[in-house]
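User: Before I run my own analysis I want an independent prediction to cross-check against. Here's the chain; please return only the structure tokens and, at the end, one sentence I can use as a sanity check.
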Amino acid sequence: MNWIKKIIGVKPSRDEFADIAKMALQKYSNAEDIIYDQENYSLSARVAEDLVNPVYFLGNAFEEYCLAPRAAKESVLQTFFGSHMLVKIPSLQNEALPNLLPRVQPRSYFEESALQAKAGDFKLSADKTWDLPFAIFAEHFGETLIFDTPTAVLQVDKDKLAEWNVQLESTLHQAMQNLNKITPEPFQEVAPGLYVSQYQDSHDASRLLLLERIKECKVQGRPVAMIPNRNILIVTGESDHANHSLMLNIVEEAQKQPRPMPAFPVVLSERTWHLWQPGQNHSEKQRFDYFSALSMLDIYNTQKSLLDKIHEKEKIDLFTANYIVYQKKETGDICSATAWTEGVHAFLPVVDKVSFVRVEEEEDDSGVLATAPWDAVQKILGSSMRPLGTYPERYEVESFPNELQLAELKKYSE
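Assistant: Structure tokens:
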């Protein structure tokens, strides 16, 4: 790295930061055999005989290092590359219990991690598989279990639960008591009827699970919440449209910070969180739809990248179709779209609109034969679409609609 940049505090390049991370690993973890993977932006290293080649993904560390003031940069390095990799979860549940906490993660985190393992982005020991237990809620989120210490946060996997001879649900119930203990005060009211979790300890998003604290918030109608990153939980009322605008302003700023989470609003009904959709006449519907669409775009793009890598690795000739987001000029509505191309074996994302494309080889051009909403496509072509059962869902398609089917689809074209 250019030493002048370090002295004057200029942001390093990604590759220069990888060199900084290597030195931090050597300094704080006595790591050896450090290998830089530029494509996946990660380091693998040997830090102990029974922890061979753990992988450090550098994206979050790079962002936080660049944002930190000069005096705090070394602390960031120690947090990410310190000896916390040597921390182990106890073999006895009673010993681990005081450090167990629930954690809310994007559902995509679990799915993407499994794909990363399959793609070879990180290595597992011969007797291990990537299998984190989690409970799905509000469609796009998952509740899992972590072992939390001052220097490390470790995932509790299925092997560990089996070693303890316990189920995830019962252990999460015990972990919730620990989260309650570190949440001694009600959420802070930052404006009349608008609340935030003020703890800033990386567990604020998980406090969405503390329903009694949520119910203490004096809001208009059912509680609606958003968790745009780990350190921000925002709660207001379903009927409080003015506060919805303030909530979205907070979300917009929070999404610029490291480790953003999907910006899907959720609503508490009885004792269960559900995905929330604003009404058609809601003044902020387009902004809510915008954040939700961008979240799905990011999730689908990451999934596509990993599936493409797996298909290349396994030499499978299959196209992972793009998820596209656009705004209608006439109405300003946010829509998603994809293309079903003749002669292409593909995995299609679930979208608002599907365009059917025929490539004219002689003219080296593509023609859109029809564009139809997803429900109509499934109605007419459902037998040709096989759901993969993934998150986010994709459908495998091989055959192209015939002329009669295309004529039916054209009836739905705008």
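Sanity check: The longest helix spans residues 285-313.
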